[in-house]
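Continuing the series of single-chain predictions for the mutant panel. This is the parent chain; the variants come on the following pages.
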Amino acid sequence: MFDSVDDVIKQLRDQDYICDKQIATVVFLAQQLGKPVLVEGPAGVGKTELAKAVSNALSREMIRLQCYEGLDEAKALYEWEYSKQLLYTQILKEKFSEAMAGSTTLKEAAERVGREDSVFFSDRFIVPRPLLRAITAEEPTLLLIDEVDKSDPEFEAFLLEVLSDFQVTVPEIGTLEARQKPIVFLTSNDAREMSDALKRRCLHLFIDFPDEDLECRILAERVPGVEQRLAEELVGVMQRLRKLDLKKTPSISETLDWARALLALNANNLDEDLVSDTLNVILKYEGDIKKAQSELGRLIVRKAEEEGEKAEEAPAEPAKPAPAAKKGVLH
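Parent structure:
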């Protein structure tokens, strides 16, 4: 259990996840209020990593439901294991014959077989999918519903019922209630707008691209072999890249990939040739790479040059008026 917002920051830091107070506050309130968290933001900013870090910090099993177009209740909730039911039917064929012995009509035989439905429609023949696993788990879990914006609106409507009551109704068995209420994270890359009904049931958290200081801290934590000077140059290029009109803006995950690539190349500093040769690590579309290559001169700015540019851009301080001459006693 998290004891406070500061405790969230500390425990996530122990899991190599650096977060600010806003993120920590939402995580703490999710635990205290028992409400799901809808985490939105660009791809690669650490939404899924946040759920993993919380799961590890609280020593909870993370159960992940990866959403996609066409996902339905059966894939998310449960399925009947028909092959196992059929196998049991074959094994118990003689028992069925005994049960139907003496029946004089087809209707009577069917009624006798029907009385044994509970044998074949019980939890032993259910294959639990992520949602049912999270609800029926003996120990507290963390449920991650990843990229919920890729699912259909009909599936989103189904989620509302599950997230409201944390219970599932299986017609052949009955209602299964959560033994331990899971902590729930839903992530969205904004492929489509989530419904107001879903947002109303969740705490909202938007994770944006990190600023330069935070990105340097994350880079130092996740790729400790990178020298500080190279890390600052790399982050500076990433910050300026994000200001370009790109089809896919690089995120913190690309920053980490690029840092590891530069380490593998034994790079000590950035120059135009090195950046041009490794742009395919951080940019995923040819048009974006060509646009970045045309802007290399502006992207690679040394720290001293950058500080000089900021000094030039800063408005000059108005000249202070000369102090008035003090009047002597004769005046």
